Amino acid sequence: MDSWNNALPIMPENLQPLTDDIRRWARELGFTRLGITDVDLAASETRLKEWLERGFAGEMEWMHRHGTRRSHPPELVPGTVRVISVAMDYLPESQQAMWRALDRMDTGYISRYALGRDYHKVMRKRLATLAGRIREAAGEFDYRPFCDSAPVLEKPLAEKAGLGWIGKHTNLLSRDAGSWFFLGELYVNLPLPVDEPVSAHCGSCTACIDICPTRAIVAPWVLDARRCISYLTIELPGAIPEEFRTAIGNRVFGCDDCQLVCPWNRYARVTAETDFLARHPLHDRGLGELFSWDETTFLNRTEGSAIRRIGFIRWLRNIAVALGNAPRSDFVISTLRRRAAHPSSLVREHVHWALERHSERSD
Question: What residues act catalytically?
Fold first, then answer.
């Protein structure tokens, strides 16, 4: 039985019982962790400003928009005094299976967060449901749910809320669950009791820095997005710089290397959330098959997936690079040549690069 069966006044003595219920409701909705924090992000605001000034955001111009609303939650949602931060595990398969997939250079590797249903929709819907339960128990209150969908400093908020610490690769880490989880937030005007942050436990480890194929982690806790494979294959709208194409290997959407090598992910477990299991068998598809899709097939096979957001042209661009890195064969060459006169100059450029790379190998 809920301790708030009937809507009660928001009095100080009622806040802790409400918080206890919120944690339980969150677990029932599939959230694996929940923490609550205040809205003071001054330290993170300083780091963000320095990061942007150094140009590390690349062409993500949206990172520069919105003024200070990203680091001042009440400016984004007036009246906000607390942020409920939640996590939901998404690991769809064993890490050994992912390493094997990266070794199969004739198949396309897709970052495992994108194999299931679009996490934005899953998380926001369940956060809205959580807010509905709070309203039923406590009466009307102001709130707004987020999941990577607005100017929100998700990782600093989750760190302050005690969900983990930000690792040297800039992902949030948990001692119990590693880093294979999504984050979401509920901005509220309820003065709920806050949680304490946890201590960091990266120590002297530099595994994530050392493994990065493009050396995107330029210093501990500093990521140059312009070098990051996730940025290059997802966020970058134009041509992928040639200096990074070989290092991309068979990664056609995102990159998981820094998470795969992290010692804390030995504690990560395969998710029980069916929405995040592969909706379409994309985790082991051959590059030739992926490159043969027309736009209609691409849209059908990526329906409800975060992959669709890059569009068909970037999809072909990414696969052309992967084909350029694949083992040379008559099949790979003929597959590339079929797109050599593609209407998109972006696709043509990357196809020609791939063909030249194979030509160089044969010399």
Answer: 148
